[in-house]
Structure to design on (107 residues):
């Protein structure tokens, strides 16, 4: 269950990172509120997952999901570069997340 909670914490991290772009420096009220809510939710879920997951693993997976998801959404939503080398680097993040999951204790 902790891994599922951590996964959703990572998705919320993607949400707030992308939300920062839409909030435009916290000048747009609705995107700002949604971004702040996603920030709080992400950290709360991360904290809940830490009840049974190791800190280093959980934090690395959380930030990895956030990094990977944000980079992919930036390509899709904002037309950022989809250069093959960039995509390779994103795939290395995915490989790291999978590796951490495989070598970590089940929770």
């Amino acid at each position: 269950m902790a891994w599922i909670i951590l996964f959703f914490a990572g998705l919320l991290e993607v949400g707030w990172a992308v939300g920062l772009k839409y909030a435009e420096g916290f000048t747009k009220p609705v995107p700002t509120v949604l971004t702040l809510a996603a920030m709080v939710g992400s950290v709360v879920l991360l904290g809940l997952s830490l009840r049974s997951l190791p800190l280093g693993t959980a934090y690395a997976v959380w930030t990895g999901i956030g990094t990977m998801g944000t980079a992919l959404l930036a390509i899709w939503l904002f037309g950022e570069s989809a250069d093959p080398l960039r995509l390779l680097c994103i795939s290395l993040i995915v490989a790291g997340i999978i590796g951490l999951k495989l070598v970590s204790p089940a929770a």
Remarks:
- The radius of gyration is 15 Å.
